[in-house]
C-alpha cells in the first residue's frame, strides 16, 4: 500500500498574518518639500507683490482717491460726507475735469442718494469719479489740440480769429454757451481795442491757469489722442 503524500505543515501563525496594505497618503511621511502646486502659487504671489507696474498702479489709484476725497470735502460743509448735487460740477472742475452739463447730469443720476434726494454721499461719488478719471473721460484738450482746432478755423493763417466767429461757434452745438459764459470768455480772449482773438496768446492763458490750479490727469499716463469738441476749448 502506497503512502499518500502529505503537504508540509504550515508554519505556526502564517495564515493569520494580515496582508500588506498601502499606506494612506495622509499618513505617509512628508519629504519636507512643498508640493509643486504650492510652490508655484507662492512664486506667483511673490511676483505679484513685487511687480513694479502693479505696485505703481496701486499707488497711483490710492493717490487719485485721496485727491477726489480732498476736493469733495471742501464742499462738505456739514462734515457728514455729503454734498449738494449742485456742487458736483464744481467739484469735477476743481479736479481739472471738463464735463459738459449732460455729463454732470449723468453723474448726478448715478450717485445721488436715493434716501436723501438732492445730496450725494462720498462713498458713491468716490468710486464713480475715480473710474471716470482713470478712463481719461472729461479730460481737457491739450495745448497742441487747442492750437490745431483754432488753426482749422483760421483759414488764412493770420494767427487770429474774429470775436464774431468765436461767438457763433460757442453759441452752436448741443450745449451752447450762455450769454454770461460767452461774455466771460470774450473778456479774457479778445485783445483790447480790437475784435480779434490771438489764439496762441489765449491758449497760453488757458494753460497758465491750468498749471496754477493743477490737474488730476497729470497723475496718470497720457491716453491716446482723441477728437475734441469746441465746447472744451476753455
Automatic annotation (TrEMBL):
<dbReference type="InterPro" id="IPR011992">
    <property type="entry name" value="EF-hand-dom_pair"/>
</dbReference>
<dbReference type="GO" id="GO:0005509">
    <property type="term" value="F:calcium ion binding"/>
</dbReference>
<feature type="domain" description="EF-hand">
    <location>
        <begin position="63"/>
        <end position="98"/>
    </location>
</feature>
<feature type="domain" description="EF-hand">
    <location>
        <begin position="141"/>
        <end position="176"/>
    </location>
</feature>
<dbReference type="InterPro" id="IPR002048">
    <property type="entry name" value="EF_hand_dom"/>
</dbReference>
<protein>
    <recommendedName>
        <fullName>EF-hand domain-containing protein</fullName>
    </recommendedName>
</protein>
<keyword id="KW-0677">Repeat</keyword>
<dbReference type="GO" id="GO:0043226">
    <property type="term" value="C:organelle"/>
</dbReference>
Amino acid at each position: 500500500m502506497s503512502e499518500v503524500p502529505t503537504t508540509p505543515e504550515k508554519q505556526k501563525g502564517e495564515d493569520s498574518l494580515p496582508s500588506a496594505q498601502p499606506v494612506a497618503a495622509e499618513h505617509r511621511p512628508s519629504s519636507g518639500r512643498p508640493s509643486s502646486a504650492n510652490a508655484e502659487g507662492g512664486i506667483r504671489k511673490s511676483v505679484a507683490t513685487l511687480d513694479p507696474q502693479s505696485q505703481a498702479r496701486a499707488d497711483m489709484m490710492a493717490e487719485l482717491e485721496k485727491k477726489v476725497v480732498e476736493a469733495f470735502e471742501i464742499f462738505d460743509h456739514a462734515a457728514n460726507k455729503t454734498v449738494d448735487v449742485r456742487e458736483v460740477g464744481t467739484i469735477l472742475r476743481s479736479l481739472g475735469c471738463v464735463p459738459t452739463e449732460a455729463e454732470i447730469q449723468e453723474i448726478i443720476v448715478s450717485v445721488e442718494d436715493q434716501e436723501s434726494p438732492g445730496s450725494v454721499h462720498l462713498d458713491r461719488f468716490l468710486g464713480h469719479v475715480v473710474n471716470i478719471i482713470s478712463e481719461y473721460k472729461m479730460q481737457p484738450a491739450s495745448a497742441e489740440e487747442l492750437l490745431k482746432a483754432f488753426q482749422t478755423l483760421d483759414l488764412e493763417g493770420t494767427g487770429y480769429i474774429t470775436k464774431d466767429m468765436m461767438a457763433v461757434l460757442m453759441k452752436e452745438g448741443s450745449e451752447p454757451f450762455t450769454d454770461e459764459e460767452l461774455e466771460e470768455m470774450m473778456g479774457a480772449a479778445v485783445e483790447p481795442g480790437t475784435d480779434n482773438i490771438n489764439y496762441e496768446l489765449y491758449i497760453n492763458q488757458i494753460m497758465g491757469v491750468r498749471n496754477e490750479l493743477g490737474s488730476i490727469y497729470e497723475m496718470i499716463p497720457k491716453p491716446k489722442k482723441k477728437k475734441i469738441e469746441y465746447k472744451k476749448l476753455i
